[in-house]
């Protein structure tokens, strides 16, 4: 009875890794990338006895010649091939049990896969008070966008060049001279 529970956990791990990272995956076949991820996440690859190259070679050995994926049965055979290599001091059956225990109940590790954007850069780039040039004209003092007025050159028939800061001061200047 305990063996069927272990096989069930092994099948569950196989399905989780088969589905990882592929929205079209059915969970019945495991591709080479996810096989390597399974071996790394479940600590089958130890860097001494079993390396990434060993894992790739075993994957190529157990899959069909024209196929790019392995089924659950082929996955099982691949673990049987890696077990004596990973656990050298144990008998074949003990090594197989040990490698199954490494895989059972595990799921893909996502830690460190995606980094969150740094908040400081976003704040700096979206702070409208620090804009210069033509972009500065699109926002008011509070940082709120001016809408159409900030995007389009609205024609004012005053006789002054657009965005001239001293517009309307000519009459005041002429009165001051008289």
Automatic annotation (TrEMBL):
Subcellular location(s) of the protein: Cytoplasm, Cytoskeleton
Region annotation Disordered: where it falls in the sequence: 129-154
SUPFAM superfamilies xref list: EF-hand
Bias (Basic and acidic residues) ranges: 134-154
GO biological process: microtubule bundle formation; microtubule polymerization; positive regulation of protein polymerization
Entry's Gene Ontology molecular function annotations: tubulin binding
GO cellular component, one term: microtubule
Superkingdom of this protein's organism: Eukaryota
Family named by the database record: Belongs to the TPPP family.
Record's keyword terms, sorted: Cytoplasm, Cytoskeleton, Microtubule
Pfam families named among the record's database cross-references: p25-alpha
Protein name per UniProt: Tubulin polymerization-promoting protein family member 3
Gene3D superfamilies: EF-hand (1.10.238.10)
